[in-house]
Amino acid sequence: MSNLLELRGLDKRFESRKGLFGKVRSMMAVSGVDLDVPRGQVTGVVGESGCGKSTLARLVLRLLKPSAGEIRFDGTELGSLSPSDLRKLRRRMQMVFQDPYSAIDPRYSMAEALTEPFQIQGIRLGAAEARAKVADLLGQVGLGSQMAGSYPHQLSGGQRQRIGIARALALKPDFLVLDEPTASLDVSIQAQIVALLEKLQAELGLTYLFISHDLGLVRYFCDRIVVMYLGRIVEILPEPRAKPRHPYTRTLLESNFAPDPTQRRQIKRLTGEIPSAFDLPKGCAFAARCAFASETCRSVRPDLSTDAAGHAHACHHPL
Ligand SMILES: Nc1ncnc2c1ncn2[C@@H]1O[C@H](COP(=O)(O)OP(=O)(O)OP(=O)(O)O)[C@@H](O)[C@H]1O
Ligand code: SF4
Ligand SMILES: [Mg+2]
Fold first, then answer.
1. CA 73, CA 89: separation in Å to the nearest integer?
2. How do residues 134-189 score in pLDDT, each as one tens digit?
3. Nearby residues of 187 by Cβ (< 8 Å), 6 or more positions away
4. From ligand 3's centre to the CA of 141, what distance in Å?
5. What domains can you pick out in the chain, each with its CATH number?
6. Could you tell me if the CB of 286 is within 6 A of ligand 2?
7. Distance from residue 282's CA to the centre of ligand 2 (Å)
8. Which of 90, 122, 125, 273 is the most buried (most CB within 10 A)?
């Protein structure tokens, strides 16, 4: 199976100044990420708040420039493209955001919101063509064509997220980055949006990079799972039910919620302090929270190693 997206040695460094005259500090929001995203599959990225998921999403679409590394989309290195070629390629790669409010201009009717992607790309639509496209996009996400004249404040959260998805589909992309698309919604609405995303993926043969902090949801929805901790990939599960080998993934699984909302119950919370991203320890970044940490763990950072089944982990004492 070929990969639609390949990331190699991807780094993103952010710099910030502590106070007005303080020293400039830098931190790696994404560090040394190598990742293949197979065509037609759902690859999940999971990790706690601040581990670099959204930064990774924005790097992948080149909404942010990497500090180092390569992003190859269908064989093309994005950094090698001129701004106009990058804009053209962007038709094929779209993002759905966590907060559909911020993604849609409150002054736009739904018809305007759904035709804006064409304008941005310089594609002219006649009035009848625009109406047909809007009706078709609304239908694809389970909304009636009478919604075309509605404004964002007239919609529910779930309807707004459907519009966010319809907008992402407007230019017939083959790749969607979904950055916590259900995190701001009620549980019952979350399930509807996940069902819609599953249906669209199957019908349109889409490739997804699905970002979430909820390992239960990711296990339900994704074909492969990538686990991040403080900017690095610490484990890749080649299939969603694979047994975690990294202690962090296991703790996430134990502390996470069951995908079935009626069975939700928090089992165990993560303990210990997350090290500051500005001052990472030299060994394993998880050592302060890990029950299995040894002297080696505290002094040598474990590399990501992959077995024959494609299961990768970065741990000196895997489970
Ligand atoms: N533009 C920026 N400038 C400086 N630091 C940033 C910037 N964007 C993100 N960061 C920092 O990079 C780290 C990763 O942030 P990111 O938003 O990618 O995390 P996340 O995994 O998406 O978190 P969440 O689950 O809360 O959305 C955080 O420490 C964040 O404060
Ligand atoms: S390398 Fe050591 S500290 Fe890090 S997760 Fe593995 S056992 Fe725990
Ligand atoms: Mg985020």
1. 9
2. 999 999 999 999 999 999 999 999 999 999 999 999 999 999 999 999 888 888 89
3. 261
4. 24
5. 3-15+27-313 (3.40.50.300)
6. yes
7. 13
8. 90
